[in-house]
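Record 1 of the preview.
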Amino acid sequence: MDNSYFVGWGTLALINAGLAQGKNRTGLNWFLLSLLLGSFATFCLLLSEKR
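->
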């Protein structure tokens, strides 16, 4: 597989971790969840309320 695919997936996971921390959620958990679910995790995170 092309390496740029993995770089993009990892970048999305880092962005999700930053978004999660901005919403007072655990960044590490969302980072790992994003590695598994990708853009679906981003969608869930954007819809969630700030704690």
